[in-house]
Structure formats: structure tokens, C-alpha cells
Amino acid sequence: MIIYTPRFCVKDIKILVRNKIMRNDISSQTKGLGSLKVNDKLFMVMKSFILLMLFLFSSNIKADDNSGIKLKKTSVHYNHNALLSTSIVENVVPVDNPINQNSSVSGTVVDSYTGEPIPGALINIEGNVQSTTTDPKGYFILNNLIEGNINIEISSTGYSLVQKSFMLKGGTNVKLGTIKMTRDFDPYADDEDGMITFDEDLFDDESGSNQTIGNLSGASSDLYTRISGFAFGVARFRYRGYDSRYTDVYINGLSFNDPSRGRFNFSALGGMNNAFRNKNVVNGADPSGFSFGDVGGATNIVTMASKFAPGLRASVGYTNRNYNWRGMVTYSTGLLPNGWAMTASAIARYAHEGAIDGTFYNSYGLFLSADKVLNDINTFSFTVFGSPTQRGQAAASYEECYRLTGNNLYNPNWGYQQGKKRNARVVESFDPTFTFNWVWTPLKNTTVNTGLGFRYSSYASTALNWYDTSDPRPDYYRRLPSYFSSNPSLQEYYTDQWENNVDFRQINWDDLYQVNYLGRYENQMTGTDKGSTYIVEKRHSNQTNLTFGSTIDTDINHFMGLQGGISFRWTKADYYKTIDDLLGGEFWLDIDQFSESDFPDNSDILQNNMNNPNFKARKDDKFGYNYSIYNIITNLWIQNTINLPQWEVYYGLSLRNYTFWRDGHMRNGRAPNNSYGKGDINQFINGAFKAGATYKFDGNNYFTLNFIGENKAPYFNNAYISAKIKDTTVPNLKSENIYSIDASYRFAFNKLKGKVSAFYTGFNDQTEISSFYHDAFQTYVNYILTGVKKTFKGLELGLSYQITPEIKITAVGTWAKYLYKNRPTGITNYENGSLPDTSQVVYLKNYHVGGTPQLAGNIGINWKAPKLWFFEINLSLFEDAYVDLAPIKRTQAITDITLTGNSESEVMENYNNAVNQLKHQDKLNGGLMLNVSIGKLIYLDRKNSLSINVTLNNITNNKNLQTGGYEQGRLPLSNGKIDTSNLNKYPNKYYYAQGFNVFANVGYRF
Amino acid sequence: MKMTNNNSYKNNIYKIFKYSLGIISVYIAMFFTSCEPCYDTPPMIVPVASWQANTTIYDLKEMFYTNTPDIPEKSAGVNYIIKGKVIGNDVSGNIYKNLMIQDETAAITIGINGTGLFNTYHLGQELVINCTGLSIGRSSGNVQQLGTIASGSSSIGWLELPIFQEHVQLNGLPFQPVDTLHVAISDLGTTKEDLLKYQSQLVQFTDVFFKGGGVEGFTANNNRTTRYLYNSDASKSLPVLNSQYSDFATKIMPDGIGNVVSILSYYNNNYQLLLIQDNNWFDFTGTTPEVINE
């Protein structure tokens, strides 16, 4: 017989949010230390901060690597650690530790209106690494607390934060009794109904990744992280400028970052906010109980059914963004007396045509989670979810196209087919995922979470391909008026076509079909054997992952904790192309057309598969390339946390093995002996170390310093020169070295609370690969950068001020510099081997890392009005974002110029102008964005409630904000030299933010 | 009591499982059978030109024998309209940015700034062209063609493809038979009448050979190369211009004596041959004769 006990989950999964949460509505009491002493220390800390900031921004940053091109070099070296240690650590005065005795705090959290328990609410003690979540009965207990002034925070999505302050004496057990939480509407919290999260970006980036608006904020994370995650997402803001591969995402303690690129694919979550609402977010190197973490922090999404409050939630929303309609329903049983808990959730998102012309959206998600609580010691949990999604994509385009069409969201991907809009770039994704966990609590303060995860991820995106004809894409540069700059009448003609002829500025599908039909007809009439001239191909990238992981979280004694974990991950990634649509043609000849023109008398080299030469691919046949990458990751980590009355210290160590190899399924004519079958095994063994300390001046002022040093293997997606063709890795492929230091000061002065942080991160020995069509050599080129060094440094601020109990003002912002800091080596690889690889110095020093604003801020006012009305207005600012660089524009190649001019000085002037124009890195348009939210909560009765909310985004309709852009990899050459008459022949491509848009939602729950 | 509760919970869970399975089935069925996006497949179009030709190619060429930047109306409200079948295009890459069309009287070259023209303007495709508003003239003083003449220029240049598209209609399906003029090298005179008749025409030479046939390729050193076609007694020859971008650029010229079909172009006051594709030489037998006196 199973005996239910409400305490089973006291440390359940022990989702220790070890980060020191800043949202510290802490009481203003400053007990334990004399106020004068505190003020002195505050002064010293502030002084240290000012020094640190000065140090971080002391370098004279140049706009670009001018000196490089002129072959002069200046460099600045810092001794960060030395400076930090003198300016900060010296100022810390040790304080006597009181005697620690085992104290505890317990309570039960309920909804203030319905009286129902709130499971999964996060209980956090300010300044203490220990935290927990409420069990299905809303109960929590925190043990091993240190005597002193305690500020406890209780947070749960959709509820106002609750704070309690009291004095905790050694050896006492404080019972807080029933704690009531009031329903709230917070536009920044990923409330189960009110928000759009986990949605795909409006655009695919050119590399084909389905970049998503990765919202990492949890119910009670740091104010800066919480607000920046939402408010800055529109500008493709990246946390501290890092690529998302430096942020680890776990589901129930199992790693689910894509092992090929290192990023977590948020679209796999299918927009099911309800199902994935329980998250623990750790910033930067802060310690956590579920992983070692990474420089970009770590998030654990907990889907265990017993973490969901019982009841039904349903909502219907309308928006004019990627999709128009969203319906969502979630039902949770809560923990039943027989020890079972189940949660099921479903979502549908749909748009016949999204906000951008020619896009569509069709996604259905399902989620099911079941827990079986056997007893106090053992809990089993099973989760399965997946959301098949099909969506038509938008693409970046040229300024000229935006201007001509009068539409900054012009999308070149679509065109009319028989009067109906058809998109050439359709993404289909489906990531069914299973996790099984056994949470074992053998001792009161020891939790072992062991899990097994399986995911099969399929991702396919379509694109036009063509053979022996010109590029059919409407914004091909030869179809733009600017291409005819020397012929005004033609320019006028093309301008007119762009402005007035939709079949000209979009894809003309009917024409593509007709061309293919005539190819077939020619076969009939003349006996030729022609295939399609145009096709739609589908590029597949599928993965099978099997993950095993086990973590332990235990208290060694009343002030020391030990966390550790071991994990094993096996992945098979499959890459191939299939024919999606022959567009009326008979077949597609599977040869490489670049090789065909470069090696006309070599019938082998142009074969994509010599084992099946001159293959006539038909619908759904694999062609082009077909290979698998196998990958094994094993990881071992350990961490020790020490919690003293005025100090918190942690340190940790991680060891990782990253092994991968390629298995080719085609014998490629460009690499006949190096493409088919199993390739060489590549193995990297890496280590990482981190340590940090928090000094607690009192209950309201904390200073934290973190350090992390990592040695990280290159992801296999970045390891091969051209994995589509051959098993050849990047020359001197090596692990990158990362070090990061950050310092933060958290404070609470009466109604003002906040945190200010500074960070400095260096990345060394990075490898970057880009591919493009080389105009001069008329062939496909891979451009590989090795030994790249970058630094990321900046300041972050998060402030909140409670004007009245109902009105709060918040301000968050970051000011940062993300720069390239050396001159890496660039390797030009001609994919078909028509020319040998060449290497050159790339003068990147002091250029900006592109793609994210380096200055961003947000000010918001939140008013909880009477009668359960909620209003929020906020204003965001984005500045200092830059286009992504094409390295080739920072090489000596740009100095090979056809010299023009009537005198030596004129020649030099023309020369310098040309070089400066080519190497210039464009800054994206920044700007302001104003958003307003209105919410209303209606209790129909004690159980049933209705919530209505409307969010008006970008209400000033700012359409000039550029959210991204990139340079093209080709140079404006004429006869092999830079053609100064048309330097802007291959202009940058840009993304723009959407203008005014709305999200309206009606939610119901009981 | 507890047992009852347990049973009812089990029932609840059973129901949830049942409903979940139902929902899963419905939604999988919805997703995989949904028709979003589905498109109607465009039908193959057999084009029918609405314009009627009112001028022969010969007459047009004769009428505007000197450079004419802007072909006027034929009469008030009536344009000069010609029609003809495509006899030369860029199908092999040997002819670049040119189309040649032919009617029963003559042929003309049209310069078009576009590649892959052969995908729309196939060999044997009848085109109806509204010449009014286009230019007619000579490219570097040589072959007479339709195109565009920039102001101040004495030479005709390529028409932009979209502009050509506004001046052309397709009529019927391509690959219709075309006439090939059987000529001897010695027939090719250079009087005005000869030029009007022969320039841009599709011609066939019988019993001819390529100098270097069986030994040399159509092009050398990956460059544009001029080869020579001789009549069987090697008394007369014509230059054959071959592009390094053609499909047959690296092929060895046929050995022996045979027949050759090509477009008659004109350069430096002399005819010049442009091969269209690699079935333009056939029935070659024997060995290539030696050319003693060039």
C-alpha cells in the first residue's frame, strides 16, 4: 500500500537555482553589521566597480583594422586578473562567522483566491545558494540554513512575487504556514497563456539554422536576464554577445543542445509555454545543481508532471507575426493519492499567410508527462513531446529591394503559381523527444537524478536549384536597377519592373514549369535526354540522439554541498538532399555543374556519386550529397559549494570527451578516395574550471566574482572543410580556449533594488567557416578562418523601483564591446578542387562581432490597477549592432585594384577610397521600440477564471530598425581585379524588424 | 475507500491516455494529410502569338540596312512585325547572348543580354517580334542584327532580356523543322544581296573538313579559338569560331571529310561559322586531308 506523504518532494529534483537571484525585494533592514561599516564597504565596492569599468573600457577601440591593411600593427595587452585582484579583492574585509547551526524554513504556497496549492513555485533565499520548489501540495522546506537575517522570495509564473523577511536563529525551524500568492499579469514572464515564446524567428539566417527567439528567462531569474530575454529578442539580442552554443539547455537534467552546432533548438519545444514553463536559469558561470554550465549560462527545463498545478488551462490567441492563431490547452492531474501525476498539453499555431508576404505557418504540438511517486525515496518520470511544424520562410535582401518595393519586409522567397503564392523556402521540422528520469533521494539531503533521453530530430528546408541557366531568384543582383548604373534608361526600366510588376520582383513559378515542360517536349521531339532545368530541392539534416545522464546533489555537512554528474551522449547526424519537386521536368541529373564547367573533359570529377554516376534523381530520391556524422560526448563534472554566513564560495571542474567521425554514403568525384565509407576519428579531450565567491555585506548587499576557463572542442559542423564532399578536417583543427570573468554587485535600498555587473570574456583559437559563390573563379568556395580571437566585455544593469505598492518602474541595459582581436588565418578552399587552397592573413583586429546590439536598454512601468487590471508600458533602445563580416574583405585581395586617376595623388586617393569602402563594416540602424500591454483577470467563480490580455508591440511603427545583416563573400572583380566603378556590386543583405504588431489572448482556467 | 479512490484515479488516467491517443491520432492525421501548402500544377502552355507578321526578315534588313537606333512605325499605328523560327541559340554555350531566327526569306541575329536563352527560345521555336522601337544595325560594323544602340554609339549592343520579352511573342511549340540552306563555301558572296540572304543563316556544307581534324580540339588552351573549315580539295576555307565555354570545346574535331551545319556569321568582311551544338558535324569518313597552301 502506498502511503502518500506531503514531504516526498522536499528536495525532489532539487532544482537548485544556484545563481544568486537579483530580484531581491529584500527588506531594508540591515542587521548584523553596523551601518557605518556597511557604508564604508559599499563605498569601497563601488570604487572597485568604477575601476573595473574604467579598465574594461580603457582600450582605444578603433573602428576597424586599418593598421592591418597598411601592414602596421598596434596591440594592447591587459593583465585582467592582476587588476581585478588588486582593485576588488583587496577591498573585501573579512567578517567573523557566527556559529552555524542547522535551521530550516517551511511553508505551503497557495493561490490567494482559490486556495489551491501552487506546485513548482520557486523558493529562493536571497544570498543563499540553496533554493527549492514546492511539491504538488504546495509545500516546501529548506534545511541547513545559516543563522541570520533571512529574505525569502517565492515566485511562480503568473503570480506576484512574495517576499518574507525574518531573523533566523541557529537550530530553529521556522514554519511560515500558508503563504498566499496573488495572480498577476507580467508581460515579461513567460506566462502560460499571455506570451509568445519559443517561436521561430521571422527569418532564417543564411546558414540555414532555424534561429529562434530563445527565451531563457524563468519565473524568478535575474531582472536583467528576465527582461532582456523578452524585450531585446526582437533585435536578435544575444546574451553578452555570445553565440547560443555557449549556453547549455537541459530537459530534466539531460543535455539537449544540438551536438553538431552546440545550439539548443527552441523551435523543438513547439511554442508550448505551458508545458515548458518550469525552468531554472543560471547566468554566466554561476553554479547550478544540474550541470557544470558554460560561459553563457545554463537552463534546465523541468517537465515533471508533479510540478504542474492541477486543472485545465486553455487559451486562444491572435497575433500578426509568424502566425495568426494559436490555440493551447493543458490539463494536469496534480499528484493523485495513488502517486501518479499526469500533464498533457496540445498546441496549434497557424497562419495561411504570416506578417511577411509569402510566409505561412502550420504547427501542432503535443506534450505528455507522467510521474509515478513510489515513495519518499523514488520517483519516476516520463515525458514525451513533439511538434511537427511546416513554415514558409522569409529571407534577407538588399536595401535596394526594400526601397524599390517600399517594404522593409520584402521577401524574395515567394512567387505566384497559378495565382497562388508559393514559397521556395519551406522548413519542415519535427523533433519527437522522450525522457525518462529516476529521482532517487536515499538520504534527506541527497538527490540523485538519473535520466535517459531519446530524440529523433528531422529538419528539412527547401530551396530552388537550377542547371545551365541564370539564377531565377528575383533579387539576383543582375536583375537590380543598380546593376545598370551606367545605363539610365535600363535602370529606369528595371526600376519600373521592380515597382510595378509582381511577377518580376517575385519568383515566376509558371515560367519555371514551362521551361521544364519544354525540356521534356524536346526529349520527345528530338530524342534528347534532358532533365529539369529548375527544381525545388530539400536539404535534410536529421539527428538521432541517445542521452544518459546522472547527477548527484548532496550536502556534505551544514555548510558544504557537493554536486556532480556524469553523462554520455551518442548522436548520429544524417545530411542529404532529396528532390522535393521536379517542377514538371522528368528528372534531375546528379552532377556538379561547377565541376562540369571547370573540368569539361573529366567525366568522373563532376559526379556527386561515382558509385551511381549520372544518376537521374526523381521525386524523393537522395542526390547531391549523403553522409552521416557520428558523435560521442562523455562528460564528468564535480562542484563544491561552501555557504558561510558572509561568504559563499564554489569551485568546479569538468572533463569532456568529444569524438566524431564521418561516414560517407556517396563516392564523390572531387574526392574519390576520401569520401565514401568511414572516415578518420577525431577526438578532443577538454577540461574546464570555474570558481566564484559572493561576499554578503548584509542581507541587502552582495558582491560576486566568477571565473570560468574552458577548453572546448570544435563542433563537428565547424570541423570539416566540406563535409558534403569529403572527410577532410580544417587544417590544424583545435579546441578553442575561453576564459571569462564577471563581477556583480546586488543591492536593495528600500524601494530601489538592482544589480550591476561587468564581464570580460576572451575566445581564442576559434574556427569559422562560410561558403559562397566566387565570382572571379565562377565556382563554389569555402572560406575557413582559423585561430580567431575575440573579446567580449561589457556592463549590465538591472534596476527596479517600487513607486507605490501597485506601480513599479524597471530599467535594464547593457553597454558592451564585442570585438575581433587578432589577424587570423583565412583559407580559401575551392570546393571542386579546381584551384589549390590558398591561405592569407585576415585583418580583423578591432572589427565588431556582428549580429547583435552592443548597446541595449529598456525602461518599463508596470501598474497593477484596481479590479485586477494590469498595465505595462515599456520602451527599448537598440544601438551598436553591426553586419556579420565577410573575412575576404579584410585581406590583401581588396588591394588588387585597377588603378585609375589622372595624377599620382588622384590614383592614391581613388585607391584609398576603394580600400576603405570595401573594408568598412556597416553599422545597423538602431532605434527605439515602444510596447504597451493591458491585462484583465476575471474570476468567474472560486475555481474558474478568465484572463484577457493585449500586447501592442512597436506602437510607433518603427520599420527602420535593422535586426541583422551580413556581407557577401564575393568581391567586385573585373578581369581579376577590383573594379572601382562598381564597388557596391555585391551589397550587404539586411533584416528589418516588423512594424506595429499585436498579440491578443484570452485564457481560461479551472 | 482508498481502493475506490485508487480505482477512480486509475480510470481517470486510463481516460487521459485514451483521449491523448485519440488526440495524437487525429493530429498526426491532420498534419500528414493536410494540404497546406498545395498548389495547382501549371499546365504546359502552347503559346499562340496575337501579333501577325507584316514584314519579312529580308525586307526588314534591306529597309534598315544602315544603323537605325529606333525602328519607326511601318505606318500610323502599325509596327514592323517579323516572324521566324529560332535556328541558333546558346544551347551549347558556343553562341553567347545571341539568338538567330529565320523565315523563308532570310535570317537575322538578335543580341540579348541574357544567358540560358535556349531554355525559352528553343531551336525551332517560332517567334513573332515587334521590331518597332528596337534598334537594328551592325555589331562592330559586321553582322546585321536587332538589338539596341546606345546614344553616341556606332555599334549595336545587346537588348536587355526583359525588353526583348516585351517585343516578342512565342507561337506554338518549339523544335519545329527549320530550313537549312545547302551551300558551298564558294557560293558565299559579299554583295549586299548576298549579305542580306546569307548573314545569320543556317547553312549546311557538304564534303568539307576541319583543318586539324582528328588531332586538334575545337578550342586550344582553354581560350576562344578560330579553326578552319575547308572544302574537300582544300581550295576554299572559312573560319570557325569556337568558344571555350561550349559543350564541345575540348572535343577533338572530326577526322576526315563530312558535312557541317552552322550559323553563318560575319566578321572582318568575311563569313565566319558558329557551330550551334555537337550534332552539327556528321557523316565524317576517311582521314583529314593535308592543307598545303593556306
What do you see in this structure?
The complex is a heterodimer of chains A (1006) and B (294). Chain A is mainly beta and 1006 residues long. Chain A is built from 10 helices and 48 strands. Chain A has a 27-stranded antiparallel sheet that branches. Chain A has a 4-stranded antiparallel sheet with strand order 3-2-5-6, with no helix packed on it. In chain A, strand 42 and strand 43 (945-953) form a beta hairpin. The longest helix of chain A is centred in the N-terminal third of the chain and has 22 residues, at 35-56. Chain A is globular, with a radius of gyration of 29 Å. The model of chain A is unreliable at 1-38, 52-64, 66-100, 187-197 and 205-220 (pLDDT under 50). Chain B is α+β, with helices and mostly antiparallel strands and 294 residues long. Helix content of chain B is 18%, strand content 29%. In chain B, the strands form 2 sheets. In chain B, strands 1, 2, 3, 4, 5, 6, 7 and 8 form an 8-stranded mixed sheet that branches. In chain B, strand 11 and strand 12 (237-242) form a beta hairpin. The longest helix of chain B has 32 residues, at 2-33. Chain B is extended. Chain B starts with a helix and ends in a 9-residue tail after the last strand. The model of chain B has no long low-confidence stretch (mean pLDDT 87). Chains A and B meet through strand 14, strand 15, strand 20, helix 6 and helix 8 of A and helix 1 of B.
